[in-house]
Amino acid sequence: MINAVKKKVLLKGMPLDELNDYFVSIGEPKFRGGQVFNWMYNHLVTDFTEMNNLSKELRNKLSDNTIIKTLDYVDSEVSESTGTKKFVFETNEHNKIESVIIPEENRKTLCISTQIGCPLDCKFCATGLMGYKKNLSAGEIFDQYLLAAKDYGKDNLTNIVYMGMGEPLLNYSATINSLKIFADELTTGISLRKITVSTAGIAPKIIDLADSGLKVKIALSLHSCFEDTRSKIMPINIKYSLKQNIDAIKYYVKKTGTRITFEYIMLKDINDRQDDINALARLCSEIPSKINVIPFNSLKHMNPEGFSALLEPTPKHRIEDFVTKLRDRNITVNVRYTQGDDIAAACGQLAVKFI
């Protein structure tokens, strides 16, 4: 009889309590969990041989039975105009994902992915056009930060947004575990105060996140205050309506005391009318919030069909007028001008081909 190959345990992605339980389960002292946690998530080590406060016997045992490296660096590209840097990483199963560093004057933000592809089919997003393959593990989510930090400098990264490929709240367990890792006092460099989770609107999971005790910032991909328009550009709105999501967001604000960000991609003659300004002003008067206005970025690199192929960006002068009218109503508005579109790294442009 042929012996089955023993499947290795995925340690990378376990928060501290799970690591403690694992080491107890293999007959080791509980404190080993904290030691390995510190090596993996603070010192960004991916090789047991570097964990010099563990015995050689234990390091060999862990090397034979567990996994602490989930991604490999494949490629990167830097925008000549903005300095935006896009990474391509590969999972142990040979799936590719993208992450992006967005440099701004006062911060450097890493945009990380939570899924391979995305099942939501938002009409303005390249990731939705590439389809969906699977969720990433918590380890694969964290290792985007690890590899980017090693390349760019850990001290140079100031913020993280869960806003790359995929919907974080459809991969809730892995997203939560990765946030627990960043939240732990043993993990230095990035705190929850500097992390934003972006969602297209999975209302029940917004409530779960509020109840999790993790006071992370949240951004709702709004893009329209009207149910029919939002359903046309974001099919997930048919399952979880805007009203459900606004109710969930209000609960989140009350529970966590945080301020909400509404993401708003400007689409010509779709969501850039005076009625849209009025509706946004009403919404922001009800919820402590700010709006990130984002020019629509081209999807030509995906050869879109149907409604996606018809989308056009709102002209710059109309965006400026839209923003001015909102600010005149005392609404906080930031304009996220396009960065990295020359390397298909701008908002809504991330996509890779499955192999």
Give structural notes:
A ten-stranded mixed β-sheet has the order 3-4-5-6-9-10-11-12-13-14, covered by helices on one side. A two-stranded parallel ribbon has the order 1-2. Strands 7-8 form a two-stranded antiparallel sheet. 44% of the residues are buried. It has helices at 16-25, 31-42, 56-65, 126-129, 138-152, 172-183, 203-211, 227-233, 236-239, 242-256, 274-286, 307-310, 316-327, and strands spanning 9-10, 66-67, 71-78, 85-91, 96-103, 108-112, 115-117, 132-135, 159-162, 195-199, 217-221, 260-266, 289-295, 333-335. The two termini are 34 Å apart. Helix content is 36%, strand content 20%.
**Total domains:** 2
Run of helices and strands: EHHHEEEEEEHEHEHEHEHHHEHEHHE
For the record, the CATH class of the largest domain is Alpha Beta
Describe the sheet with the most strands: 10 strands, mixed
Total number of helices:
13
3D shape = elongated
Strand order, sheet with most strands: 3-4-5-6-9-10-11-12-13-14
CATH architecture of the largest domain: Alpha-Beta Barrel
Number of strands: 14
Question: What is the gyration radius calculated from CA atoms?
Answer: 21 Å
Helix vs. strand class: alpha/beta
Average residue-wise pLDDT: 91
**Level of helix content?**
25-40%
Strand content: 15-25%
Instruction: Output the CATH homologous superfamily of the largest domain.
Output: Aldolase class I
Distance between the termini: 34 Å
